[in-house]
Amino acid sequence: MEFFQLFARAPKIRHLALPSYISFVGFPWSKLTSLGRIDESWSLSHILSTLGECRNVRRFDIALAGTYPGPLSIMNDLNIRAQSLSFLRSWSTGNATMMSTLLSCLIAPSLVELVIEGTHRGSELEADPTREEWDMTLNSFVSRSRCLLQSLTLEGNSVGTVVGLPDVFALIPTLTYLKLVAPLTHRIMEEGLFRRLTLSSQAVPSSADDTLVPRDVVLLPKLQRVELVFTGKSNKAALNKDVLPSLSQMLDMAESRSVMRLDHGGRVISHRLYSISVSIEIHTLSWILRRTVSNFPSAAEKARIRKLVESGMEVQIEVQ
């Protein structure tokens, strides 16, 4: 009896972990409810085949390398039932093509959690994709899937642009958790993303009892938790606006979402934001920089943070 036939006759098998892809003819993939991490040795065609076969696996963790062995066969519009997709991109040259190709093949209508870690890079013959190009890739996948995403984590250049991210947010009004991990050079805090997430002037109550807002002004109306991480190196003699991100627009957003908002019919159109954190990790920080860090946030920002905490919001700001 061949090795794979042993598994084919295991009616109660529910979990499988493989160091590399093995073609099991007749293997009962549909019986699996969990699958070990798909590592960097798997070809793109094998990844797509497995995602399609494992119809009852709800979470997939996929490590993407730059170059895959074997032929590259494409399955357009592969409908998968996964509720959670987690991609870990290595620093291998070429992983951007694999990431974009994989997402362009998939439709995931049941997806509630999407995690994309690492940084995508072009191949030896291609430049790294621009943030604008990544915006289109992510937008197309979410739009095509029509999923009710609740949790989104983006890292590195998959954070995209301040122009493109709100277009993605408009497609996922069910989102409750957002995590962005970006380099210090990505000025996402200053370039207007949080201004787009801030309720407009019409939406700001004129008194504590006035929480009526027009329905069409809110992006991510169910957002409850925001986590921001900025990483990078700095050898500057002082920390200033060119090194540390400004907290002003983020605090504007948090303040505008510190209470539940209702429309004129009494329906909830914006849930309360419960938690927001900003972690700034600066490597090779000199003693001069460390002394300057003690002045961040500013006194005015600290006063605004105290008011948010008093209102019941969890706010954490740290520089490492």
Automatic annotation (TrEMBL):
Name the UniProt record assigns to this protein: Uncharacterized protein
Organism of this sequence: Collybiopsis confluens
Taxonomic lineage of the native organism: Eukaryota, Fungi, Dikarya, Basidiomycota, Agaricomycotina
Source superkingdom: Eukaryota
